[in-house]
Amino acid sequence: MTAAQTTVAALPTRFAGARRFARAFRGRPSGVAGLVILVAFSLLALAAPLFIGDDELDVTKVDGPLLAPPSAHYPLGTDQSGRSVLLLLIWGSRESLRIGVIATVLTVVFGSAVGIIAGHYGGFVGRILMQVTDWFIALPSLPLAISLAAVLGQGSMSITIAIAVTSWTATARLVRAQTLAVEARPFVERARVLGAGDRQIMVKQVLPNVMPLILVSSTLTVAGSLLSEATLTFLGLGNPADVTWGEMLHEAFFGGAFTAGAWWFLLPPGLAILAVVLAFTLTGRAVEYVLDPRMEKK
Amino acid sequence: MSSRPALAEPQTAEAAGTQAKARTGRRPLRLPRPGYLVSKLAAAVVSFAVTLVIGFSLFNLMPADPVRTMTRGRPVSEAELLRLRVQLGLDKPVWERFLDFVNDTLHGNLGYSWEYQQSVASLTMDRLGPTLLLMGTSFAISVVLGLWLGLRSGWRAGSLFDRITSATALTLWSVPTFWLGMILLIVFSVGVGPFHGFLPTAGMSDPTLPQTGMTHYLDVAKHLILPALTMVLVVYAQYVTIMRSSIIEEIGSPYLLTARAKGLMDAAVRRKHALPNALLPSVTMIFMHLGTLISGAVTVEAIFSWPGLGDLTFAALKIPDLPLLQGTFIVFSASVIIMNLLADLAYRFLDPRVRDQ
């Protein structure tokens, strides 16, 4: 037995679940591929300020050729203002991922809170909450998001809010169903008999058991949020000064690159969105598969 | 609530709950009970009322000053601002404005567009036809394509065909609709390299051609190809997933074993026995996903300048023309509510287990 194996075996049992999870996750190649893509994009987004500055992004400071096809100096060509498309693409990942993640956090926190409260209290409160959820589900999400963003004004803030308002319902329904299932189990009964209050049951008993499901649903929510973000920015609801993938496509389509046939400005942002959305979906599905007890038996 | 609800597909659960009451043999077709119809209609009406409240608050309470939004970017005198406020009824109390709004909407008056200087109702009515044409065509194609692929891949889950179908569907689902539209537009209308584009770039018909008769229909069909294709490619994936999981749920059922034991061919078992049962939950889920189709319509119509409601929304958004946005929002919401109602009724009608309750 090597030293490494001894250390792994000597880890306290509380990590046993995590180890089993990691082993099962490694058995899903598509999930691993998704995770690798996500890590790569996140590192790139975090490291971007180290090698990209105002000189490359400010339209008044750049000196590249306008709308030039790829060359040795500009691997993905340039945009209408002479900026390098590759650098824009890398910089765009920051804002795109940031909006996607913040919108998802808002969605998941709000949706889970509604779901747990509706599931725990049942009765009148639960019915009212689920009725409201159903009303929101019936609303067409993109027209609602467009109207919200238009009313709140251009910018990433209103886009984030618009995404959260239109996507919390799915999380709420999912979490409510899971809450009902968890509360039917004996350990919740035991906590109640021992005198736990509503809040304690919801936070200490239900939440930890609903958490894995919430995590899975949030990776899938990020994928949806990124697509919505791109769509809303493309339609012109973003701040034109920000560099995001949706904003790049907006400029490419409405700013003349499209009619000029500048494929190097059109393809990369779309492919980047596709890659990240797909990566989130693959990772989420792999985690879902690993956590699903029915699948583990096979 | 006593029973534990299913996580993903409530419709399946509902069907499963009534399975015990299922009887074999044909029964005469019966319409749903009037009580059920009334309750569903009432729910739809309440839903629409909620839409009106949300629409009103969104467009009348949230903007700090609609008149400022309206006159954004151009100089206006105080007198003109005041005149506009009175004209828009902003000097009245909120509840009175809300009652006016509800009254107007119920009488088909959706307000007056700032940009087009025309009533919103007539603007949206003009655009309804093209949107229905585009959505109907892409809906029909993607449902047939998605269900067929889902049936085949779910029947042999894990096979090469299943893996290719699922991977393609997942990838296309991750593509932004508007970007796919742009790519198709470049390839098939503009042309890439030696390949010349042969499809029209924008609009619904060629104004130089006669607007009636067979040439007109063919011309519209030609304009329809790219927008419809874009929507089908993004939307069909959902139907594949839905059908695939429904058929996998059915696959272990004893009635399929019986059918095989009778000596039926595999294809006949799939088509005559598995398909009808898997279709039921799928149909409801498909109707519930109609909202996504509408979302797709907005961007696709904007890209291809298809003269429908989505394109109108996009035009209103650029100004921004708040009454017009409000009008399209209400029309979109109303159509989703009507579709959901129809889906509910269709489900009751299609499933004998639920119908006879």
UniProtKB/TrEMBL annotation, chain A:
PANTHER family: OPPC IN A BINDING PROTEIN-DEPENDENT TRANSPORT SYSTEM. PROSITE patterns: ABC_TM1. This is ABC transporter permease. The chain crosses the membrane at residues 32-52, 97-121, 213-237. It is a multi-pass membrane protein. One of its GO terms (cellular component) is plasma membrane. The lineage of its organism: Bacteria, Bacillati, Actinomycetota, Actinomycetes, Kitasatosporales. Keywords: Membrane, Transmembrane, Transmembrane helix, Transport. InterPro entries: MetI-like (IPR000515), MetI-like_sf (IPR035906), OppC_N (IPR025966).
